[in-house]
């Protein structure tokens, strides 16, 4: 394909360490082919308001791979298939503005869009692809819960930050004979909790995939106490749930189940442990600390490989696909395939077995 | 002093990065003089129960300076001048067991005690010193609020961790046009908030020494928005208070003032900002993350210098003193001097002026 | 298998971040099954001198996963199939002491050996396995050049350290319009150079798999200069070689080819660039910095998974195998399979393509 | 002073972590007063070629404090009092262009210059100040060898990097029973070697202020071996010298004394130790790794305080002074005072005593 193409890139959903690396690699690889490349700010919304489109050049992206966030600015500006539109009186309704997006895309002469995002963004990308827009997807999810790829960028960074936090909590928990409950990201999938909990030498790991029994957690911690380990670290994914439970936890995701518990799952677990064991117990929510900042080397490289592969996929005419990591190589999968699977921790997989072998309890 | 002395060391209060470095230096310096050195576990309580005393040798302390926490174990086991004593029925009363501590100290043949701790520990050390026990104090306070010394170990580490957290929050706050309110340690003194807030390029810093007006904070943030900075970082010390306020905040320290606010000062500030500006605002409490883990090089070195200087002070017969940092040299001050001053941020000092020069608001 | 087994573990070859994590996981998983586990110091040599065998318990290994090095001490004590034996006169000869190793192994009642090491260690392990010793291999190579597994522990840490070093060199190279040549590990395989060079935004990457032409390197750097980038970073693997070259470089590995160049490949490349371009050019050898210290979270987890999987392999009777990472799962491969392939950078693989797309030159 | 001033800033000498923080604080503090501020690229040379002057605004400096290097670009472009000037034939001579600098300074309407640099830059600044140019100095030296101030920015970062490197070397030295000799910066003053050596638990520290005897170093290391410590770490400042020695070492600074030793002082020391003790001994030069990259929180804050204080000094009319750190406060000292003292490690100071108390040898 010797024609000089004109492509664009947007980043959707929450920010993840590595977004800027994708942007850098896409820009460099496009420039290498003497293509033009543009960044669309604010997700798809930028195609509604063409003031939000910026030219990307090697100079603009020089060295951004090391930076957190995204130079394409605010990422969560809505789904063009049901975009909230409000009148001056403040009354809002959802409208399908996808036609406008498609129209602007063509009018601006773009040959392809590289859409970076999680499952929400991939669904939108697939709908546009089905409508004839040439799209390549780049997977992004800190929680690592996106199908079709073994790993996504951002996950290694988040797991590393969580592990470092757990490492730090050991010394203070030990110095005070205390139970520390630390909440990490993972609404639907417990990968961050599982991996950081094992690496960080936790005593208990609670994940959405394995419902927990608070009595078993307490029994495990008191058993440790008898063996001379008078402190404990409990790592809990934000989406962990009691078995057969009716507990409702407050979280960013809103409320579920029946009873409201202020402060999230970590505070709930800490209170229950404290009241049942009498141990000094504290909770801590890592929250946004896991999302920001410079990506690890692993995430930087993976994001750069994804970005360059997306450009090569456009060159090869493989539109409608998502780049993915398979057996340490970049592969292309259909968006349908990526969206057909919800990736979750395998309760019988070797990582969970490793935890059990190391005498870590899942409260089950 | 050519006699082979027999000395001991205890660590009191909350743990701080650098405690193990003090222990390592004391042990090495004592060994260098062919003295015997013992570690008393659980603060002064170890002198009540002599099972809690361990021999310290170069082999035991090899390489511990890099580790967080304290190898002398749990640190908060009470004040021997009013130690809680409970009978089997669970009825407790406070008793003065200082005589027992003194008696054991002499019976075990110790020539001196090195007491590492904050103002509470220094007060106890001074009382024992007044009763004739040969004591050298080593200052320890993460908040940097102890008089008599320009700096204590642990503070640089805590400030570094807070700054790194603020650095991380920038990228996510910026990507989402969000206000992030982050609570750091500092019940009485705002040094950690001030130093990490300036280093971390915060927009607002709230410290106990400068009561804040929530309206001024909001005006500052909205002014930034007009200038194109659509996100904001607010760093708040746990002890920050509204001017003329009657707000009560929940914290580890207990309650004060009148109205109960769940979740601490950061959540209160975040809620107020959100309701007044309509901005997406989140809060985060760093909590124990600031206390644990490996000390920075600065803290390691300072703690090692303190430990070795304490041994030299014993050798020189300068008992009843505390080691201190003055103009980058180790000095000895009397414990009375150390306890006579409460160290606080100087609202007219150059660090606060630096913040104001950099357009950071204190909400005043 | 309900019998209580008695197993042992040794670590061979150079140290790698993660060795202690393997030891911790093996110990915990064995203890979980109420097995006894022993550590053999000094590689296989410890089975010749049974003073070098220590009991491993949960208490001994508590928290060691975070530490660099290996608690089993010095690792390079020779191959028992040709062990140097010297008399008092200092005359040495190589003897086959494998029979003695086997005999002691049986006499001590061990049911299995977990042998951790690189290709050298795996070859020895295979020979003992062929002689009837029940062995499970755990792959260890910082360079990532071992076949049969997608990844080994230590590699992520080394790549991260190299990338951080490259990041640091950018600012000083840029401030002084300088070319910096940095030598990283990789005698036969260029994975560390390739991955850290891409992540660290290098201008040139030189690896053993792609022989380089110094003139092309200089042309690339001078081209950058014309485009306004007046400084440059060249990352060179220790085993990189000029195309058709007759250059001999000094390295730990000894000498090869014809002409002796003092100081290694980095100094050679730096001198050539300086003399041809006239640019201020400096070289730096990272050396042992890449090998020591705490493993990354990724390496810690991988090493723990390998260790626990090795114990499960013994339980399942799968002796003579090596644990391996395949598609993010732990698999078992025969030692023959692991040894049959030399893992190298694929010059047509997507990672090399990513580098080329980002305008990084391989000097070819 | 209510007039709107117009000021400029330059950065001289080698780069140091914190230069950008000074630039950020100067810009913000000037903007706060509604002054205009300009950055002079390439040291004083930018005042000879006014194309090298850029306007600094809050937007330009936003967030640069965290970055290494200097946005004012290449720093070493010569002394205007003896600037090399070459004709087309390549013949060069040194000319005094200070008049031209002064003339441009006035012509451009600048009210003051903030000169950031080490002793060389401060000498030039003083000469311009004596000629009537309104100058404020900001001290910068990684080696911490500048008089008049207790500390300069860059030093804490460099010491931290050196300590982290030493930490890493421990595990590999220990695993292989090896002596590692690591060379750190410090041509005239040994502060980095001393502080990182103590913090990093070295066995031997060699600094310019204490000439060493290689036999005493070997005796110390062999004594450790007898006590069971079979490995060793030797930290050597690049300017360390043997006592009564006639050894010449190659370094950036050029050659001195009599005999040429290739590879610098670390290689020399390593070779001597290896030949006298027979131990496996390796050397490593940290070099530019210590200079680049993001400053520590301590350095960031100090640099920001220096920058803001420089602007306040201009406002207060205190020209001809240098900002300095004294007893944890920013003070102003005359440039003459700063230049009158060469700051060196005090061989009888408490830090050296700490090292000796910890059984670290200086080879004396």
From TrEMBL, chains A, B, C, D:
Record family assignment: Belongs to the phosphofructokinase type A (PFKA) family. Mixed-substrate PFK group III subfamily.
Q: Name one GO molecular function term.
A: identical protein binding
Q: Which reaction does it catalyse?
A: beta-D-fructose 6-phosphate + ATP = beta-D-fructose 1,6-bisphosphate + ADP + H(+)
Q: Site positions for Important for substrate specificity, renumbered to this chain?
A: 120
- The reply on keyword Magnesium is yes
Q: Where is the signal peptide?
A: none
Gene3D superfamilies, per the entry:
3.40.50.450, Phosphofructokinase domain
The compartments listed are: Cytoplasm
Question: What is the official name of this protein in its record?
Answer: ATP-dependent 6-phosphofructokinase
Q: Where does substrate bind?
A: 141-143, 178, 185-187, 238, 282, 288-291
What function does the entry list? Catalyzes the phosphorylation of D-fructose 6-phosphate to fructose 1,6-bisphosphate by ATP, the first committing step of glycolysis.
Domain of life, per UniProt, equals Bacteria
Q: What is its EC number?
A: 2.7.1.11
Named cofactor requirement(s): Mg(2+)
* Keyword entries, A-Z: ATP-binding, Cytoplasm, Glycolysis, Kinase, Magnesium, Metal-binding, Nucleotide-binding, Transferase
Its assembly, as annotated, is:
Homodimer or homotetramer.
Q: Which GO terms describe its cellular component?
A: 6-phosphofructokinase complex
Q: Where along the chain is the active site annotated? A: 143 (proton acceptor)
User: Which pathway does the database say it acts in?
Assistant: Carbohydrate degradation; glycolysis; D-glyceraldehyde 3-phosphate and glycerone phosphate from D-glucose: step 3/4
UniProt-listed InterPro entries = ATP_PFK, ATP_PFK_prok-type, Phosphofructokinase_CS, Phosphofructokinase_dom, Phosphofructokinase_III, PKF_sf
């Amino acid at each position: 394909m010797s024609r000089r193409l004109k492509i664009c890139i947007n980043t959707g959903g929450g920010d993840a360490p590595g977004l800027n690396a994708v942007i850098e690699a896409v820009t460099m690889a496009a420039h290498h082919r003497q293509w033009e490349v543009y960044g669309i700010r604010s997700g798809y919304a930028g195609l509604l308001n063409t003031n939000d489109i910026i030219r990307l050049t090697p100079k603009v992206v020089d060295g951004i791979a090391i930076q957190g966030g995204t130079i394409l600015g605010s990422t969560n500006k809505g789904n063009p298939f049901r975009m909230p539109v409000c009148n001056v009186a403040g009354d809002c309704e959802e409208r399908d503005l996808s036609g406008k997006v498609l129209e602007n895309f063509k009018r601006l002469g773009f040959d392809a869009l590289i859409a970076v995002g999680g499952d929400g963004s991939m669904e939108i990308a697939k709908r546009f692809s089905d409508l004839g827009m040439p799209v390549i997807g780049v997977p992004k999810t800190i929680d690592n819960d996106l199908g079709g790829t073994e790993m996504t960028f951002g996950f290694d960074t988040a797991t590393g930050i969580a592990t470092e936090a757990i490492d730090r909590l050991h010394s203070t928990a030990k110095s005070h004979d205390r139970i520390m409950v630390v909440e990490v990201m993972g609404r639907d999938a417990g990968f961050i909790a599982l991996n950081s909990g094992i690496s960080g030498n936790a005593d208990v790991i609670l994940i959405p995939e394995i419902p927990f029994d608070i009595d078993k957690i307490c029994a495990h911690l008191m058993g440790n106490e008898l063996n001379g380990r008078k402190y404990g670290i409990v790592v809990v994914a934000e989406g962990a749930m009691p078995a057969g439970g009716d507990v409702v936890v407050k979280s960013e995701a809103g409320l579920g189940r029946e009873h409201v518990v202020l402060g999230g799952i970590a505070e709930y677990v800490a209170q229950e442990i404290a009241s049942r064991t009498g141990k000094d117990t504290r909770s801590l929510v890592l929250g946004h600390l896991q999302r920001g900042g410079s990506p690890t080397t692993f995430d930087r490289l993976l994001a750069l490989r994804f970005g360059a592969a997306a450009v090569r996929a456009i060159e090869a005419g493989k539109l409608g696909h998502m780049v993915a990591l398979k057996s340490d190589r970049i592969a292309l999968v259909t968006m349908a395939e990526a969206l057909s699977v919800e990736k979750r921790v395998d309760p019988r997989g070797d990582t969970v077995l490793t935890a059990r072998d190391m005498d870590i309890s899942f409260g089950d």
